[in-house]
């Protein structure tokens, strides 16, 4: 079931949805615990995702750490390979750079290097994305890096529904999952069922059906793509919006089939353009669907600059409805 | 009251003026932020003025500093212009970084302020590098590196200071220990009381001072910088201090026990130094008042400059990526 | 001039060529110095690139460091923004993960964040690549990550000629340059002029001209591509081999023009396939040359696994002549 | 000779046997490597046997260790099988990691050997995590984390140990100080003599022992592990030792001053312990000889097993990426 069909349900925020996932899984499985900077009772995480959890589960299971990103991820790994199921929070995704060895060389490779003797069931939650005027060190989108690391899974929820369902799946998964949250989505409301559900990895969600152009979009860009699609519909252009929901595994089939149907594709992601997520999607299509493409592939992404502070500048670099509409018109 | 080396009157006045500039500047930023005139987030230096000012008063213009997310005070203390700092915080084109950096990323290379990083601890090895550069160029410059108690748990603290110690670089590492990293108290994330004790891991001196006493800071930094310039290597200088407000934006800082906060806030470095100046007759009330008036005017002028300055044009976002 | 035309010159190894570049630039400019683990007189770098340099220039300018990758890069940055031109060596490129914050958040962004007040003229030299049976932590190729970071330049020399010329250019460049050396190339000999020369950034080298298929290849893969081209020539297939030499800036024009001519392209790189260098090249072609493509784009890369130790396994994952030939035949 | 708590005869024999297993194993690997039978590179533990054996003799099978690029000795000391270690080093399918890991990445989860990392210092926070897991699960297990003097300059050392100290985790951090990191002597990269002194940065005990004296190591580790199991938190245990050969492969280690090398090589932990056993009449010559014969046979059997084992099939490279 897609988020957009779920109109009848209660509406909660992305932030609340994530918290529900954490809480339910902590109730369900004693091995699940949280660690990170200020995730506990004094702050509840920079975006308040863990509000109430330290109070409910105690400080043993909701652990404030020193500002030590390498040790946070390393400790999660050590716990994961000895029977626990840690969920580490890195306060801003940009700071994953400080833990890249632990993420990319240790968590991702331990199972393989050791011939399958162990697994590393852990989740690293990280807020990413631009748009909050917090400049170059707090605004990046680095999904592409993690897609380039075999052994990691990468989840990119765009709605409260997906956020909850994917996070629960991530926690139950036996591999290290890089879980990307977009900082502008935390406050966004959406329908989320009361009953338990999971969103499987590797299943894209068609957030809007259409027949003229396919847009592949992730995270906050899904909403901008939907707005663009709505506007384009008024001009008689029928846009299909596909949200991969996980980048590893990537539901290539749904994307390729959509493009086979529409013959045209625009890929909309944050993160700078070069060697970003859009490059991989474009490459797959160039390999698998080139005969169906009636126009060049278009990528809409951030230009190759750091994210600037001033809203005037920042708005210029973040993809928006207008840029998406222009790209769609370019491929029509 | 301890005794300190006698400072000239002009120097004392300068210390007071800089501290006050920072205080007024920060109080103003806080207000303007509340009025939605400042985008993003802010981390104010109010309460910690004695640290930046006490340290930087020992530095020459050609000496270096590196700074943090809580950097306005460092900029002011090192001699950057209030108006261009304020303009940057507003995201204006006339700001030091043309609006690209904002509150967390101000730099003024013309006064040796090598910039603020918003990655906690990331400035530490960079300051080490500035020290290395000084050594390689054979000058008698020095560098001061500011960072928090929280930053002292980062790997970069360990690596950066060890490297400077190994090479006897002219850097002083100034830990602004305000007892908290966001909502996390120091005691929850390390088993030691004084961060300065970590100096022994690197075979360098570690000194802890009252960071709310500008003369104590001045004095300790003076020693450390003398050592640095003399080629005797780095010092870890810990200054115990306290934020007057929350960590950022609207953090009410309720995690700080009331008695603790009360006790610390009473030790506000500004009235304390003011009283000291008057009691020791170093400055007259009139002189002090003149400083206060000048500072108010300067901060007001900075706000006006920032308000009246233009925003950058959107396309400027594409500039300055490569040299 | 391309390496391959330089037959008349003296032959030296890639390692010697790099050393000559370091030495010449150190002689030329006092501000240039080296730092890294064991780059000095006791070891001369893991691959002996700095042999003799500590002896010639002294230990002040050829500095052994502790095992502190973050501090090595951070110190280079601090020196660079205060008037020096450091060359940092990271002993194995896989360990750049430990310095990713300093590289991607500091070195790359300092100029931009500070509104162009400063520049960060430094080089980070790193050996990458598989094939030496040194397993998952010493065999990666992570070029794609660095391409995805605006503010960095990325050089990928495949021959002694290019190695020397690009390294000299890198040292004189005012931006942080990530300089990738392939560990299997150090011992490879090639023609290098006695006279000074520079290889400009952003100019691909056509290592072999052809008309039926374009191969874009980097580093060690250039040589495998050339061998494949030679073999294919015997079957009457004319292959053009393009070596971009720098990935940032990327000489898109030469690649696009070649593909416009041949209509077919195979991209051969190390590094795992997903979100790798090949993805970006494919995406550019899908955007700019789709109307000229007569066949799907093919990427030949490492599969999405860490690099295994046992030679049997490692050989299976590294692209080789056979796989390249197969890919070329697939697009014919 | 110092006095140590009296160990049972069987325990003493076990210590000697394990040390000898490591020595013979490593000497054999060296030879085989020279004959091109082993791919890649090797970092031998010969000379440092007393450390791994002295520490691991205090550990139960369900306790954990983490290891390094110089890890064969750790594996053997923790109870992994010689033949499967050797097979891994050969890149065979019967190796612990099915040939995927090789010399630098051996693990045997069945005996609590959580694996070797080739990234210097990367195992330190992972050991912290194993300690955290023990604490959360409420068992009385302990974890030992091996790393070198060079590794103690990594940020992970600082972050990993500080975290364990903060949370009082049952981990002992064993610094195998062999005075060099590749060609770099300790004194060239830190200004302190004893790495154990860094413990004070974390408010935990730091102990330095003669790492070539297996009973000294045993004893110090015993204390530290008791503390750990009792919930009193981590210890930093530094064992001074020396490699018998170069860092890796064909490194002739000419950077080590001759007198230094000579003095240290004379203090070889193996003959030293053997003499001690005989002099104190703990074991008879005959008993010792029997151990020596058994070890030789075991190492030979391991080589034979490795030689006769099949390589993995190429396609197996694609397995084990995800669980
Ligand atoms: C490496 C890193 N981790 C986390 C953060 C988020 N963060 C910003 S400020 C801060 C607290 C810093 O504490 P401290 O170093 O004591 O400085 P203070 O804010 O008290 O001046 C944190 C955790 C960050 N910016 N960088
Ligand atoms: C993070 C990192 N940096 C550099 C290397 C290359 N390297 C491998 S072993 C080694 C020396 C390690 O020294 P030490 O920690 O003292 O251990 P030892 O080899 O002496 O046992 C180095 C620099 C590495 N593997 N990992
Ligand atoms: Mg603080
Ligand atoms: Mg060592």
Q: Can you put this structure into words, describing what you see?
A:
The complex is a heterotetramer, with two copies of chain A (332 residues) and two copies of chain B (323 residues). Chain A has helices at 14-28, 53-57, 69-80, 100-107, 110-113, 143-147, 160-172, 220-234, 252-262, 277-288, 311-317, 321-331; strands spanning 11-13, 32-36, 62-64, 85-89, 123-128, 153-155, 177-182, 189-191, 205-208, 213-217, 239-243, 246-248, 265-272, 298-302. The two termini of chain A are 30 Å apart. In chain A, helix 1 (14-28) runs parallel beside helix 7 (160-172), helix 8 (220-234) packs across helix 12 and helix 9 (252-262) packs across helix 10. By secondary structure, chain A is an alpha/beta fold. Chain A contains twelve helices and 14 strands. Chain A is globular. In chain A, strand 10, helix 8 (220-234) and strand 11 (239-243) form a beta-alpha-beta unit. Chain B has one domain (9-309): 3-Layer(aba) Sandwich (Rossmann fold). Chain B has helices at residues 9-34, 49-56, 72-78, 82-90, 123-137, 155-166, 186-189, 214-229, 258-266, 269-279, 285-308; strands spanning 64-67, 113-116, 143-148, 171-177, 180-181, 184-185, 206-210, 235-240. Chain B has a six-stranded parallel β-sheet with strand order 2-1-3-4-8-7, with helices on both faces. A two-stranded antiparallel ribbon of chain B has the order 5-6. In chain B, helix 6 links the parallel strand 3 (143-148) and strand 4. Chains A and C meet through helix 4, helix 6 and helix 10 of A and helix 4, helix 6 and helix 10 of C.
